[in-house]
Amino acid sequence: MARGAKNEKTPVTAAVLLIGDELLSGRTRDQNLVHIADLMTRMGIDVREARIVPDIEEEIAAALNALRARYTYVFTTGGIGPTHDDITADAVARAFGVKIGVNKEALALLRERYGERDINAARMRMARMPEGATLVHNEVSAAPGFRIANVIVMAGVPAIMQAMLDAVAPELEGGVPMLSRSVRTNALEGDLGTPLGAIQKEFAHEINIGSYPFYEQGNFGTNIVVRGRDDALLDKAEAAVKALARKLEAEREKGKP
Amino acid sequence: MARGAKNEKTPVTAAVLLIGDELLSGRTRDQNLVHIADLMTRMGIDVREARIVPDIEEEIAAALNALRARYTYVFTTGGIGPTHDDITADAVARAFGVKIGVNKEALALLRERYGERDINAARMRMARMPEGATLVHNEVSAAPGFRIANVIVMAGVPAIMQAMLDAVAPELEGGVPMLSRSVRTNALEGDLGTPLGAIQKEFAHEINIGSYPFYEQGNFGTNIVVRGRDDALLDKAEAAVKALARKLEAEREKGKP
């Protein structure tokens, strides 16, 4: 998006596929997207889309194929445990049209962690992976995630997912980091609208200005977020937004009875 | 899914489309999906998919067209305010291939709320809606959402979104409510896996058993959620799961040094 000489390279993009009935029933609030998006943003990788699908093999495979064709990386979370509803590995194999089998390295890790007494058929399921997958380790549970081509398959439990993301991050190609500045104001979106649109126009393409109204304890206000990859330009845009916010705040103050 | 005589009717389904750059940058954690999913579940409407897309008109329109063709209802959140990045109404018009114009009823509401002093071009943008849309009212902000065919377009601010959802809910056709029971245990997923899979098999199609590991303060455990539309069958499945959990807990206790 940014056009500065040093930002000329193709943007690195990502999508996130969150897998699990519990995320769609209202039972569980996802915690993984924000964590992944936050790290990706710092690495200069733009998260462009996320999808949430139930534990249905065809649905997972279809969503994965749509996303992996379009984005540099796809991160999936959920469905790689030892129970009957853990079908992500099968769905990934299906999406790639490859066989699924026991990954020996993964099995060795599971045997080491559980020992001969506790290793069983259910736990050994966690070593089943699509052919061609490489392991994504984590220290929390020992059961690894995996990577195949541009798809990184991780656990749904946040602590385990985070460990896996940390393990795989050094392998990813980052981009020019997206920087952001926030301006919080009690000016109202309806008053900001036209002049803020003019500022956006002035900095078109290089800077992206988002306006997020909030409503707290009966009061409305706005968070304005200025994002871009060029620090100096960001300074200018932030200054313009701040000046606008302060002006409207003063007018609002004056207008009070 | 349930096959009992009284549940024979076609399931009522829904998808949720969350719109906004801030949800993909890691800046904002969505609060709307859980709220929508929770109400839909109680109304017997199955939320089958959710997508999160940025503030890009073509992306919103493409996702909306994919979802509205597939599910009974589609709920969107975000992008209906007065600033330049609020483009949901345009995207919906584009998706439906209809014109967008000023909805007179919406404009009257805005004029009434803001009065001649504060109504301006930016605020009047909130009256722009696709042709054929009907209003979805809310008491919090006055600016209405809208409905067109099976698509319900709501604000992103949670308090406003919730008011809009409450306003539109009585118009929706509900289904047989999905009921659920939760069993929490310190038994491990790896030990539950095989026998839990057998219970799922026994109740196949009528009951859906989900297994959700947790990791809290260094301890692993499992939440098992049993879902279905037939209360008596749910009792049976829950009893089977509880018996399994208690058995494994006792074995785990015995196995401790």
Q: What oligomerization state is this entry in?
A: homodimer
Order of neighbouring strands in the sheet with most strands of chain A: 2-1-3-8-7-6
Strand content of chain A: 25-35%
CATH architectural group of the largest domain in chain A: 3-Layer(aba) Sandwich
Mind telling me the CATH class of the largest domain in chain A?
Alpha Beta
Overall pLDDT metric of chain A: 93
Low-confidence stretches of chain A: 1-8
Per the CATH scheme, the topology name of the largest domain in chain A is Molybdenum Cofactor Biosythetic Enzyme, Chain A
> SSE order of chain A in H/E notation?
EHHEHEHEHHEEEEHEHEEH
Q: Which two chains touch over the largest interface?
A: A-B, 73 and 73 residues
Radius of gyration of chain A: 23 Å
Please describe what this structure looks like.
Two copies of one chain form a homodimer. Chain A has nine helices and eleven strands. Chain A has two domains: 167 residues, 3-Layer(aba) Sandwich (Molybdenum Cofactor Biosythetic Enzyme, Chain A), CATH 3.40.980.10; 77 residues, Alpha-Beta Plaits (2-Layer Sandwich), CATH 3.30.70.360. In chain A, a hairpin with an 8-residue loop joins strand 6 and strand 7. Chain A is an alpha/beta fold and 257 residues long.
Short note summarizing the structure:
The structure is a homodimer of 257-residue chains. With 257 residues, chain A is of the alpha/beta class. The first copy, chain A, has helices at 21-24, 32-43, 57-68, 88-96, 104-118, 121-124, 158-168, 189-202, 231-255, and strands spanning 12-19, 45-53, 73-77, 100-102, 128-130, 134-136, 145-148, 151-154, 179-185, 207-216, 219-228.
